[in-house]
């Protein structure tokens, strides 16, 4: 008799290496947290004990403005009485160049989200299925299997799938440190470049994300110039993922690589490529509007041919062309979106500050980078995972651990804040408050004992520290029956 396990293995042998391997990169706590949420999603009334999704970088704060515009512009859709006369023109085959009005509107929008300091040529706009598709297409255009791209850490976990899975390309981490706010330094770049060389990985480019996911930071002009110079000198490509361009608020300023290359004499523009999408700035991830903007003619031509595999549907192109051409709407939307992001960010950071929880100072993106290093039993990724499990399964907040972003320092967590309503954010903060006060209660006797033992040395002050000496506290019994946060018997992490 053939066992089920053997049968499964044989089944996999019927498939390609890509299909049967795990190059999709989804075996990470980043995606496990999503599964935990999906199995038991929080709902204010129907599931008040469910997991709150704080692992999804989605901008839902201005959905009302979007819905209002759609209702006021029925002619923008070909599936309404007002737009149906265009149905046949739009529903027929459209080639991979995209509707001219779509490319023009997107180019203008990209200028606006870069404060009109640069011009974008509509003929260089290439479509893709979201930034996800854009990254893969760029990787296919620039690199062969086995080649590598340098990527500053921490970085968006999806890159492991988007750039690597089907292309066979490597990502080489550029290690950044919390001691200087995770800045991308020349030394870190040179070290990573050298490491790749020693591992026989030909480096084809550097992929940077500005504003950063997960840090929420923006790169200053000086740093951007140094990245352009570094890549130019090494004759490697620079891919700038700018999909959070319009999510800056407060004091932070977004500077596009498009602006910086104009200030660098003799810059080799053939090496510069921008990845963009409407997923974050307009809060439309479901529309799958991704853009490759390359300054390299050959890349534009090839990427356009490849875009046949991930075109934006013609009815979406038409709707987006109409929407983005409404300049008053776009201006108001971006202005309001920044205000709402700033207000939500303030609400979350004020809450965390009140609880003595640290976070990286940054004012962009749809998330913040929370510092829970003080809660780790030991400064290891095992401890980070242990703490993450508690947060997901007991506190019931799906935040994402830094290890899944390739952060090299354990104890950091990304917390998304723009994908929920105000009440849910209040509930999330209340759960964190209960969690931290329980921890403080728990650690008091430990602290007292330590103080006694060490006589004069103060170990426990405002900083929370989590002792995992008895891990079972979290698995059962840690939360009292009276705690508003009840442990879930349903959800178990899969890592
Ligand atoms: C930095 C970064 N790049 C790309 C993507 C993928 O975006 P899209 O939904 O447009 O495919 C994301 C999504 O979270 C992201 O954060």
From TrEMBL:
It comes from Camelina sativa (False flax). SUPFAM superfamilies: PLP-dependent transferases. PANTHER family: 1-AMINOCYCLOPROPANE-1-CARBOXYLATE SYNTHASE 6 (PTHR43795:SF6), BIFUNCTIONAL ASPARTATE AMINOTRANSFERASE AND GLUTAMATE/ASPARTATE-PREPHENATE AMINOTRANSFERASE-RELATED (PTHR43795). It catalyses: S-adenosyl-L-methionine = 1-aminocyclopropane-1-carboxylate + S-methyl-5'-thioadenosine + H(+). This is 1-aminocyclopropane-1-carboxylate synthase. Its cofactor is pyridoxal 5'-phosphate. Residues 52-432 form the Aminotransferase class I/classII large domain. Its EC number is 4.4.1.14. Coiled coil: none annotated. Pathway: Alkene biosynthesis; ethylene biosynthesis via S-adenosyl-L-methionine; ethylene from S-adenosyl-L-methionine: step 1/2. Belongs to the class-I pyridoxal-phosphate-dependent aminotransferase family. PROSITE patterns: AA_TRANSFER_CLASS_1 (PS00105). It comes from the Eukaryota. Keywords: Ethylene biosynthesis, Lyase, Pyridoxal phosphate, S-adenosyl-L-methionine. Transmembrane segments: none annotated.
């Amino acid at each position: 008799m053939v066992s089920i396990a053997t049968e499964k293995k044989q089944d996999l042998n019927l498939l390609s290496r890509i299909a049967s391997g795990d190059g999709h990169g989804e075996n990470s706590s980043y995606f496990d947290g999503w599964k935990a949420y999906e199995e038991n999603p929080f709902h204010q009334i129907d599931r008040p004990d469910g997991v709150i999704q704080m692992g999804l970088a989605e901008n839902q704060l201005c959905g009302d403005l979007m819905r209002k515009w759609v209702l006021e512009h029925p002619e923008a859709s070909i599936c309404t009485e007002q737009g149906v006369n265009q149905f046949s023109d739009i529903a027929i085959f459209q080639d991979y160049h995209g509707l001219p009005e779509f490319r023009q509107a997107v180019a203008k929008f990209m200028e606006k989200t870069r404060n009109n300091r640069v011009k974008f040529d509509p003929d260089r706009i290439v479509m893709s299925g979201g930034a996800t598709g854009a990254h893969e297409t760029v990787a296919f255009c620039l690199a062969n299997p086995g080649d590598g791209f340098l990527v500053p850490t921490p970085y968006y976990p999806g890159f492991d799938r988007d750039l690597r899975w089907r292309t066979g390309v490597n990502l080489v981490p550029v290690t950044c440190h919390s001691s200087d706010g995770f800045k991308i330094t020349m030394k870190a770049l040179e070290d990573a470049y050298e490491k790749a060389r020693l591992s026989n990985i030909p480096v084809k480019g550097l992929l940077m994300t500005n504003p950063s996911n997960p840090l929420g930071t923006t790169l200053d002009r000086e740093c951007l110039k140094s990245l352009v110079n570094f890549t130019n000198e090494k004759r490697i490509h620079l891919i700038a993922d700018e999909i959070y361009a319009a999510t800056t608020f407060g004091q932070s300023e977004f500077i596009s690589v498009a602006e910086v290359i104009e200030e660098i004499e003799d810059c080799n523009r053939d090496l510069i490529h921008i990845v963009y999408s409407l997923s974050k700035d307009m809060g439309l991830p479901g529309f799958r509007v991704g853009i490759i903007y390359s300054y390299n003619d050959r890349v534009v031509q090839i990427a356009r041919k490849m875009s046949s595999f991930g075109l934006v549907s013609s009815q979406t192109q038409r709707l987006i062309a109409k929407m983005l051409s409404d300049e008053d709407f776009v201006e108001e939307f971006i202005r309001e979106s920044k205000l709402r992001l700033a207000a939500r960010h303030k609400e979350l950071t004020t809450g965390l500050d009140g609880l003595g929880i640290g976070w990286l100072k940054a004012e962009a993106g749809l998330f913040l980078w929370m510092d829970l290093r003080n809660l780790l039993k030991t400064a290891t990724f095992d401890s980070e995972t242990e703490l993450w499990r508690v947060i997901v399964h007991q506190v019931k907040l799906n935040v994402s651990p830094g290890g899944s972003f390739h952060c090299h320092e354990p104890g950091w967590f990304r917390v998304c804040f723009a994908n929920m309503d105000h009440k849910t954010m209040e509930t999330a903060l209340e759960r964190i408050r209960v969690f931290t006060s329980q921890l403080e209660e728990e650690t008091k006797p430990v602290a007292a004992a330590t103080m006694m033992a060490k006589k004069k040395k103060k170990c426990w002050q405002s900083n929370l520290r989590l002792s995992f000496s008895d891990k079972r506290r979290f698995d059962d019994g840690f939360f009292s029956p009276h705690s508003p946060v009840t442990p879930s018997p349903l959800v178990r992490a899969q890592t």
